[in-house]
Amino acid sequence: MKNLFTAGSLSLLLSLGAIPPVFAQDSTSSQESAVPADTVPFFVWLEGVKAEGLARGIKQSTLDAALNGIEPIERVLELDKRQPEFTRTFWGYLESFITEDRIERGKKLLVTHADLLARVSQKYGVQPRFLVAFWGMETNFGDYTGGFPVIGAVATLAYDDRRAEFFRAELFHALTILDQGHIAVKDMNGSWAGAMGQVQFMPSTFTGYAVDGDGDGHKDIWTNLPDIFSSAANYLSKIGWDDTETWGREVQLPAGFDLDLVDLKSPKLISEWQALGVRRADGRDLPPVDIKGAIVLPAGVKGPAFLVYGNFNAIMTWNRSIYYALAVGYLSDRLDGKGPLLATKPADDAPLYRTDVLDLQHLLSAAGFDTGKPDGMVGPMTRAAVKAYQKANGLPPDGYPTQELLSILRKQ
After folding, report:
1. 260 and 330: one domain?
2. 212 within domain boundaries
3. Which of 114, 209, 286, 345 has the smallest number of CB atoms closer than 10 Å to its CB?
4. Whether 330 and 257 share a structural domain
């Protein structure tokens, strides 16, 4: 993955807390205040942006139209610094994003746009059901594309010290899009973090992968469906999508399954998983195809298990959240007429609040299992500490923190 923000769905990912606690990154700077570099006034900083823009070949008229009179957007900084009190469990996430209404609407849209989707699919090699699934997950089929001016939002974040380099680069990508005439400044709206259009591309994703799908000379991912579907499909095809395969499937694991094998970085041939006792969710043998897959346990040993293939990794390039990637795959299956998951939500499914995670981190560290600097976010170090603790105490070592585990630690 190139970086955290190349995902197309940044607005939903961050504003709705889509990075689940089990798969978030450990962070030590999430609560730092926003302080502009060298406290240079914003209007002076903008003059530097204009000068660099001219040096990059962007027209003066474009720079003036986009940048004259803008001010930092305080709401953008508030949203950027906001940490959710809790993050959804896998089941809570799935229930929020994969509703029966969304499934039924997606099925109808597959029919409505069948001819267009077929042409795009043939050209780029991405199945229509996946294009509609991404569309549904990103903006509810175009309903919610964001109401922030992209230039103002990205400039605000570029002026802020914390990720200035990344967002300054995004700002110049956004200015390039305007300079090329693909959209007017007044119409270039998106999320508070700059994700744009019905597929929520960051500006750099747009300049790298957006497509003029109908040949009108513009790349319009805000209102033009040929451009929207073609751009999404082009991006997926360039990051490794294979339309001869699906994304993965729900499976059941045998008793005593070695949880150290649950690792996206260590895939095995399907025949190898079959030999290890892994079966489809309904108990049937795995398909006899010569491809590799990895096991994913998004809710630990008490939740569903999935065997995921190469296309799952492409979804993870679009958005680094495992919950998101599973939701896209599951929604695509439901759009294709497949039934719901066979695993069921446990009665005690409950999220961990940030205060719970902080408590968990302190307790694990006190017990000799290093979680790094406690920050209330469950990242790689915290998951590793959880797994080490589980192994040391005879618990299934899935690395998944729960209220039950926290209760055990609190009693020690």
Report:
1. yes
2. no
3. 114
4. yes
Pairwise CA distance, residues 281 & 239, whole Å: 29
Same domain, 176 and 272: no
Same domain, 257 and 376: no
Residues 253 and 299 in one domain: yes
Within a 13 Å sphere around the CA of 373, how many CA atoms are in the beta-carbon half?
A: 8
In angstroms, the CA 400 to CA 396 distance is: 9
Q: Which domain holds residue 330?
A: 248-335
Q: Which DSSP state fits 146?
A: -
pLDDT by 10s per residue, the chain, length 412:
333 334 444 433 333 333 333 333 333 333 333 444 457 999 999 999 999 999 999 999 999 999 999 999 999 999 998 877 767 899 999 999 999 999 999 999 999 999 999 999 999 999 999 999 999 999 999 999 999 999 999 999 999 999 999 999 999 999 999 999 999 999 999 999 999 999 999 999 999 999 999 999 999 999 999 999 999 999 999 999 999 999 999 999 999 999 999 999 999 999 999 999 999 999 999 999 999 999 999 999 999 999 999 999 999 999 999 999 999 999 999 999 999 999 999 988 999 999 999 999 999 999 999 999 999 988 899 999 999 999 999 999 999 999 999 999 999 8
CA 196 from centre of chain: 14
Say how many domains are in the chain.
3
Q: 73 is written with which tokens? A: 């957007």
Residue 244 has φ and ψ, to the nearest 5°, of: -90, -5
Same domain flag for 331 and 372: no
Q: In what order do the strands lie in the sheet with 279-280?
A: 268-269, 292-296, 305-308, 248-252, 279-280
Question: Is the domain of 390 the same as that of 263?
Answer: no
Are 168 and 41 part of one and the same domain?
A: yes
Cα–chain center distance at 272: 30
